Amino acid sequence: MSLPPFANEPVLELRRASERAKLTAALGELELPLRVPVWIGEKWRSGDELVSTDPGAPERVVARSASATADEAADAVDAARAAFGPWAATPAAERAGALLRAAAWMRERRAQLAALVLRECAKPWAEADADVCEAIDFLEFYARGAIELAEGAALLQVPGERNELRYAPRGVCAVIAPWNFPLAIPMGMTAAALATGNTVVLKPAEQAPGCGLRVVEALRAGGVPAGAIALLPGEGEAGAALARHPDVATIAFTGSGPVGLELLRIAADVPPGARQLKRVVAEMGGKNCVIVDADADLDEAVPAILASAFGYAGQKCSAAARVLVHEAVHDVLVERLAGAVAGLQVGPAEDFASDVPPVIERAAQQRVRSYAERAAADGTLVSAQHDVPGEGWYCLPVIVGGLPADSAILRDEIFGPLLSVEPVRDVDEACDRIDALPVALTGALFARNPRTVARVVARSPVGNLYVNRSTTGAMVGRQPFGGNRLSGTGTKAGGGDYLLHFVEPRVVTENTLRHGLVV
Ligand SMILES: NC(=O)c1ccc[n+]([C@@H]2O[C@H](COP(=O)([O-])OP(=O)(O)OC[C@H]3O[C@@H](n4cnc5c(N)ncnc54)[C@H](O)[C@@H]3O)[C@@H](O)[C@H]2O)c1
Is 283 assigned a catalytic role? Predict the structure, then answer.
């Protein structure tokens, strides 16, 4: 199969009125609530144990979903195990073909899918559209990667011996996904597992079962056999039951640190009779820092910091949480950030003018507000107040300075629109503070001196370091994405090595110095 080289799906040009009109029309035409089943093979069980609502208008029900029981988790793994042999034996090019048709299915429905992401997770239009594009990118990128991987790897050959390395799929993969990239992340993990010949049971986030349904529909519409991809909506217990199943070979997880660590513990518990070690691919949270040096271009730094910290209300794993600024420019940066944050518009995701949408749910609003209260008590708030729409899980964007070094706000992943600013003597002190953190996901540096850039690059432990730009917005194939330290198992989604997590290398060595053939 010869495919054109991978290229990112272009995002919509939302400055065009015609594009905005298409999206608004798609939102108006969304038929809600969706019914989300436990979907195993051809079996479809509806239910409404789980209800997902619009974070901007919580009385609006987006999806009514069944919630999988432990028995259903076991059934799903059994079905995926039964489907594994035939799917693993399907040539890589055919598996890739199914993924590419799934991408085409999504491309045809871009506006409707973005509208669902917006409604279910309150992602503003530009980011909802980017979520759809990223899901398409993962399908296209891993389809190509799997074809390449199926060639195996070159080994040293010597006379009288033939050596071959092939990559074999591992078996059933449990995909456990978060809500904040409700199409892109579950699709990315699922596409990688399927492309390499594994079968998948997908447990979408309880906040986004509707988007989880669309992921599975796209793959089945593309031609992935029903047995090879099951949908298992539910809360954390459904994920835990799935992960514990002895026939799950790989757990692909993206989400919070504590859940990732729990999954690593589950995988380490090898029951008697087990025939395989579970592998965990875990991508977890961060506490992402932006360093601003004395010579930084503040015209560039200020909008990039705002976008990093407050885009999607700070609910990206890559969002900026701390600014470490050279003391020589601290006051001017704080003043400019304070002015800029006062201009942010807090409002519904569907309003094209909104900068800060509501957070995902009531519990998140309470968590972020309680950190904001703590910030006001322990430090100095530098941001201005806004009017918050009455309904919906809104949180004001907050910038805080003057926090004590041991403040929880400088350590915990708050996952909301709260940014701290700290003065530092120089970039080395900033690097020391970053190095003291147990997590290492993303970071940014604003500096003009190439020697400073080289010094920070050499010292930075983070998985993705951005120089003179925002901390968010990694693109498939361009910025393979994932964290180090306690931010993850070193996975780089959307990069050339990612598929290796889903396969086992097998080497065959043949003695070719035979004295004739037996025929
Ligand atoms: N590193 C990355 O690439 C990346 C990307 C996106 C989000 N994240 C992180 O995800 C978090 C936000 O997402 P979230 O709130 O959905 O995370 P979460 O950890 O609460 O949930 C993620 C998934 O795990 C499931 N789950 C919860 N408890 C479980 C258990 N005991 N066993 C098995 N599964 C369980 C949930 O139902 C959900 O499907 C943040 O910490 C963010 O930084 C990381």
Answer: yes
